[in-house]
Amino acid sequence: MKIVDEDKEHVILCGDFNENPDDENLVQILYGNDHEKVLINPFQQLFSTRNYSTFHYKSGLLYDQIIMSRSLLDNKTLAFQDAHIFNSEKISSRTRHFEGRPFRTYAGTRYLGGYSDHFPVFVTFKSLQ
Fold it and tell me: In the chain, at which residue ranges do the beta strands (DSSP E only) sit?
């Protein structure tokens, strides 16, 4: 099954994939029928340098990702710059035990008053025109 016509379509896949960037399912979708790379996942680099958007017990996870078609990155109007995890202190946990983690809304059924159990992710582009 061909996901992207790499010469014509600009595709962005984003969300909570419930898998890290190095998991087999996410790596496989980057390639077309002829085993050529048609999608780019800039969050692979972030994950390899131990940057995470959420945590499960002691494990850091980067389930939140933005995957883009090569054609989007190779066009003449936009230049991809970087992928980011927005882990501002304002939306981070306020307790020392969970320092560096998102300030959760709930812990089980207990309301904590935070924002989310995931940090937001985003990509930046530069206009070439």
Answer: 12-16, 39-40, 54-56, 59-61, 64-69, 78-85, 106-107, 110-111, 121-127
pLDDT, one tens digit per residue, over 73-91 is 777 888 899 999 999 999 9
The label of the residue with tokens 């159990």 reads 117
Q: What is the DSSP letter of 31?
A: B
Whole-model pTM: value is 0.88
Q: Which residues pair with 122 in a beta bridge?
A: 84
- Which value, in Å, is the radius of gyration of the alpha carbons in the chain? 17
Cα separation of 96 and 51, whole Å? 19
Which residue is listed with tokens 């709930």? 106
